[in-house]
C-alpha cells in the first residue's frame, strides 16, 4: 500500500505531538477532537502545520490507520462500525488523573488494548505509542539521532505488522514486536517499561527481567502465572 | 530611541524542605521561617517576584501559600507575592478571592495569583473533588474567577460550584484595582488557548528538554490572542536552577537534589529514574539552569530571546538542598544573573 492516511483522534499533548511527527515523516495526517473544525484548525496550523483537521467521524472514515490519543475512558464513544476493517493504533492508557481513581476498564488479566479490541471487534488493533511520554517522543529522539528509541507494539493481527512497523520506523523509532496483544500489558502504567524511551537492547533487557519487578510479580499473582 | 523592553525576573519554590549543613532536614516550621528569610533576601536584591507552590506532601512545607506570602509582605517592600501555582480546580474560587483580596490589602497590591493544575493531584481527594472532573472544574472555576474579579455583587449558577445570588465577596478590592492573575501551563495546547481566551498572561513550565521545543506553544499563544482579539499579554517561563560560583559544585548539587526530586515524582507516575546522561543534557542544552552565574545568565538570555519571553522565574531549592546553596543561588541570581541577562537582552 502507498503511504497510508493516518488519522489521529485526540489533539492534546500526545495527539498534537504525533501529528507533528507524522507530518515530518511525510504522512497525510488528519486529526480531530470533539471541538468544531474551525476551532481546532488554527491550533493545529501552529502545533502541527500540515496536518488536516476534520470532524472525528470524518477522520475515522477517511483514515487507513487511526491512532487513538484520547482518554481511555472515552473508548465507548468510538463507533465499531465506522472502524471496521481499519487499523487502530491504541496509544491510550488508564491514567487515574483523567480516567478516575479506580480502574473499572482494564486490569492485570485484561490489558486496556484488549478491551479496545473487543469493542472495535472488526478492526485490527495494535497497542502502540503508549509507553513513551509525549515530551520524550521528541526530546529523547532528537538527542539520540544515531540510536533509535524502541517503540513497542503488540497485536493479534500478523497481517498488519509490516504496516505498523513501517509507521513506527518512519515516525523515528525502532519497532519492537511484543507479540500478541495480551503482551501489551507489559507497556501499561506501573510496568518498568512504561515511560521508557530507551534503545532496543535496553528494552529487551528490561523485558527479559519483567517478572523480577513488582509489576511482574503482580501479574503472576493476578493470573496465576506469566503471560503465555 | 526605542523604549527599552521591560522584563520580569522571579524566583519560585515548591516549598521544598531544606537541609542543615550537617545533613539533617529542617522541620516544617523551620522550613517555613527559612522561606521568609529567603524572600526578604530576594526583595533586598531587587528580584521582581517570589512564587510559592501549593503542595500537600511530605517533602514540601507550603500548603497554604497565601499565609506565607502575608508574612513575607510584612518584611519586604517591593517584591511581588505570587503563588506557583494555586490549584484552582480543587479550590473554592470564592475562598481564593477572599484570600487574595486580603493579601492585596495587607501587601498594598503586591499580590499575584498563578492559577493552574500544578504538578500533583493530591489536592483532589484531600478536598473532596473528583480528579476525573479536572477539566470541567477548571473551566468552570476560571470563568467564576473572572466574574469574582469584577468585584461587584454577582450572580452565579454553577454546575460544580456554588450558586450565588446578588452576592458580594469581601474584603472588596479598592475601586479600579484587581487581583493580578496569571496562568501556569504545562504542555497542553488547550490550556494555553483557554488562558488567552480569558485574557490572562501565561507562564510556561519548561522543566525538561530543549526550550526551543516550546516554540509551537509560543506561536499558539500569539495566535490565540489574534484569534480571540485579546491584547497580547506578556509570556513567561519557569525552570529549575542552581547557581553557585563553583559551577562543578552546582552540577554536583543538581545531580543530587534535582534528581532526587524528579525521581520521587517519577516514581509516583511509574517513570524510570533520571539517568546521568539525561541530567547532563538538561544542564548543557536542556531546561536546567545549573552552573556559574555567567553560564546561567547566558542560557536564560538565549532562551528568553529564542522564545520571546518577557518573564523568567528560576525554581530554586529543588529537592531541598543545603541552606547555603539555596542562599547562594538566590544571591547570585539577584546580584549577577539578572543584571547580566538584562544586559545581554538589552532591556531592563
Ligand atoms: N501525555 C502523554 O505523555 C501520553 C503518552 C502516551 C500515551 N498517552 C495517552 O494518550 C491519551 C491522550 O493523552 P494526552 O496526554 O494527549 O491527553 P490530553 O492532552 O488531555 O488530550 C486528549 C485529547 O483527546 C480529545 N478527546 C477526548 N475525547 C475525545 C473523543 N471522544 N473523540 C475525539 N477526541 C477526544 C481531547 O479534546 P476535547 O476534550 O477538546 O475533545 C484532547 O484533544 C491518553 O489515553 C493517555 O493516557 C499520553
From TrEMBL, chain A:
Keywords attached to this entry: Oxidoreductase
Keyword Oxidoreductase set for record: yes
Domain Pyrroline-5-carboxylate reductase catalytic N-terminal per the UniProt entry, residue ranges: 6-94
GO CC annotations on file: plasma membrane
One annotated GO biological process: copper ion import
Annotated SUPFAM superfamilies: NAD(P)-binding Rossmann-fold domains (SSF51735)
Pfam families hit by this protein: F420_oxidored
MF terms in GO: cupric reductase (NADH) activity; ferric-chelate reductase (NADPH) activity
Superkingdom of origin organism: Bacteria
Protein name: Dinucleotide-binding protein
From TrEMBL, chain B:
Keywords assigned: Monooxygenase, Oxidoreductase
Listed SUPFAM superfamilies: Bacterial luciferase-like
Database matches in Pfam families: Bac_luciferase
Gene Ontology CC: one annotated term: cytosol
Luciferase-like domain boundaries: 20-304
An MF annotation (GO) of this entry: oxidoreductase activity, acting on paired donors, with incorporation or reduction of molecular oxygen
Protein name: Coenzyme F420-dependent N5,N10-methylene tetrahydromethanopterin reductase-like protein
